[in-house]
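As a warm-up, study this chain.
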Amino acid sequence: MNLGIFNRVNLKEGEGGGMYSEWASLASIVRHETSDKESVLTKFPDSGKDVAMSIVKELASNIGLTQAPAPSNLATDRDVLWCMEVICYGLSLPLNEHDAIRDCVHIYCDWLTVLHPVPNVSVPKPLIDDPNLYARKMIGHLHNLFIPRKGEGADTIRRQAVLCHRVLRTLQQAAQCSTVMSHETWEALLVFMLAINETLLAAPTIKDDVGDQLCERVLSVLFEVWLVACGKCFPSPPLWKTLREMAITWRHRGALISTWSRVCLALTHKLLGVMYPPTFPKHQYYDSDHWNVPNDLTDETIVQSWFRFLHTIGSPVDLSRPQIISQTPKFLQYAMVSDTDPSSHPSLHILPLNFLVAIKGISNLVDAFLGVMSEALVLPEEEHKKEIPTPPPHRRPAKSFSVSSVSQKGGMSKSALISLGRTMSSSTTSSAAPSVSSMTSISGSWEVSSASGQQPTLLRPKCNSLLHLFGEWLFEAAQVGTGLYHNPNLIREGSGRRSGSLGSAQDSLDLDTNSVANRYQAGRATALASLCRIFCSKKTGEQILPVYYARFYLVLMHGLKINEKREVEEPLISILMHCADILRLDLDGIQIMVPHILEALERVLPEKDLNIKINVNMSELRRASIHVLLSLLPLPLHFPNLTIKELIGGHGDKPLPTLGQLKTRITNLLINALQVESDPHNTHMLLGGLLVLVQETAGIEQQSQDKNSIQNSSYPSGHSASSPDSKQFVCEGNVSRVPQIDLIVER
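Now compare it with the structure written out below.
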């Protein structure tokens, strides 16, 4: 099954609306339809409250709260409909009328068991006769409970949140166990879930409001109910389109990004079960904190659901662009009453973290397809204290998550991605703007570790397939902060021109984008690491599209750049940690990266104490760098006349450099690295490399002397040592010695 073909149908919104372009959205209905949410009692505000409180109190006494439940005395449709008007009004009362609202919630939760195989005894007979009709009405009325009330205190809001949790739990149970729900009822339930998420999450984040307290819970229920619907009554294209349109307006919420990542990873494992045999390696996150995907999904449903959920939040790279995230109706309403630009709203200061979590989620999907373990995002120890649980402590779901401490090995901590998203979202969702320093230092909060030593499974898909699916997002994420999109010749892929047009991008290299780059360095480094793993998984003889090579080398070149302060930044570290074998593979044109790689190694290896702001194991970083250095050793010895072309621009009339000219730099780097190395394993590797260098150099010099003496005595007239035949002979003799370096390193 070639899943890469899906990317052909998921065109960008600017090119016609994507795969849902021919379907109407239900967004306006979800946002503005109020006919089922308002009671006739709203027209009598003075007396309606008293009527509602007295009626719901008596109805609640019959459902078993304080005494044994009894059959309802509501015998006709008219009786039930009249009472439902009262309950609808009761759900919209001010929160200080908590008892009345609570009774309304208990009544509807009891009556919604009409969707269960065995309804409660207190459910009125008209509901049992037509469960779907009344269930749709009750679901519509319950929306009133989730509407935020202005001016309420924190304790009152918490009590509202508890009632909302009760409703969500009831609807979850009904969706999972019901066998009588019709297509119209499923659609009403999904529209309700979209509506309450829109009501609570679309507005800019305000700390401790009901939206902040319910954020994670309403999102998890939305995705869980949606997955159940995929198995029982697959949502229509208008619903999928509405989900995507609305989710795009919630992207300032960290819980959305972490929940989306978990759902996509869980569906990816289901997808791998469809595509590959059971022996395919299982991703380690799936063993600990995985999302529960219904077991009754067919193979085709899994494929369709996976691809649609993957594109639910649009392009994850937009999370690095506050100007795009803030272009929503709620943020524009904020701009109308404030002099501040909506892109500067305090709730958007979490975007660097959301960007990191989203790209890490995509990286996990790539690792799952490659059959390798993912590295975890790990918070510093002090961040543990900032976590505020979304559900009340006694109502937390069974799937709870914890943040791993920084002392753990990066590759073994559990669900750090998810806990990271929730912890940081709760610590940054404040009505006051966080300090700039606290947000720009996000990149320094994550431990970077290497997955070196892991071999992708032999069953892995081709690189082109992975790049068809994730390449666009990863390439764009790897370019965040580099200024590439400021160049009209390097516009986003899919908007009319390929970003393979590299010739006139030189001006973009000098753009001052440090202020943007520093905030999103962590996500950019994660994207670079994932791209390195994809290209380093190339099989022998496998072909990769030239446009992917070009884009990879472009982002690699930018990631290896040294800034003016000569700091070792996160992208550079990420590349070195994940491309130890990049020069040992048969990647087309990789020699153009040799000068850039060598320059980066010259910054890392000769320094005993590097100034690095992120948590990284220095021995592992140096070991990965030494691997790259050792793979450089044979190049100037065996291919001294091979020219190195420029990826961008050129030298004009200047001759192109050759690999042979790098021999002195590589030799000096090897010696300097050996002088400051303290790790025994790394020292052993460097000594092995030095031995190879000496042996190879001596062997080549001896060959050259022997050939010169033979040529002077044996070559007939008209032949010389510089003839094509002799050059070919020398090259063939040299190439045969290249594998010696790997043998010595292994020894």
